[in-house]
Amino acid sequence: MTTMTGTKRSVGYWIVAVFALVWNLIGVAMWYIQVNMSSEQLALMTEPQRQVYENTPGWLNIAFAVAVFAGVLGGIGLLMRKRWAATMFVLSLVALLVQMIGAFTVTPAWAAYGAAGLVMPAVLVVIALFLLWYANKAKARGWLS
Fold first, then answer.
1. What is the DSSP string of 49-111?
2. Is position 3 within any domain?
3. Would 49 be classed as within a structural domain?
4. How far apart are CA 102 and CA 109, in angstroms?
5. Which of 61, 98, 90 is nearest to 73 (CA)?
6. Is 119 part of any domain?
7. Average pLDDT in the 75-88 region?
8. Which of 64, 67, 83, 143 lies in disulfide reach of 95, CB 3.0 to 4.6 Å?
9. Are 71 and 125 in contact (CB under 8 A)?
10. With contact defined as beta carbons under 8 Å apart, do 53 and 37 qualify?
């Protein structure tokens, strides 16, 4: 990727910005599916998965919502070239960590998924960290105003 300073942004910048928005919109869809799960969908889950769903407190769903909606705003901020994009990615990361830690401490997620259940949360955290790093890099290079 080409390094540019001032107001010029590389094609890579726009790819990351679009990725950030699309990735977090997918997260919004996953949040919506989770909070609006029908009894028919619940019946298709295994018993351990159903236990996790039924034992998830509302505040974890709120943390999930904050994580994905702040991420969407961060992606929009990058596309609009706004400095506040980095702040939105900080909020998204913090909410994601609250959600992930909470899921494994207050629900039977560990019993349901074991160590393999940590793979997707780890991927989510790595992507959130990358988006935060990139937004801060863009801010430092003067790409955001």
1. HHHHHHT--HHHHHHHHHHHHHHHHHHHHHHHT-THHHHHHHHHHHHHHHHHHHHHHHSTHHH
2. no
3. yes
4. 10
5. 90
6. yes
7. 98
8. 67
9. no
10. yes
Alpha-carbon span 44 to 66, nearest angstrom: 27
Measured CA to CA, the distance from residue 117 to residue 11 in angstroms comes to: 35
- Reading the block at residue 99, the tokens are 């959600």
Note down the domain range covering 71: 11-37+44-140
Report how many domains make up the chain.
1
- pLDDT bracket for residue 103 (50, 70, 90): very high
- Asked, for residue 53, whether it belongs to a domain, the answer is yes
pLDDT tens digit sequence for 124-144: 999 999 999 999 999 999 999
DSSP state at residue 5: -
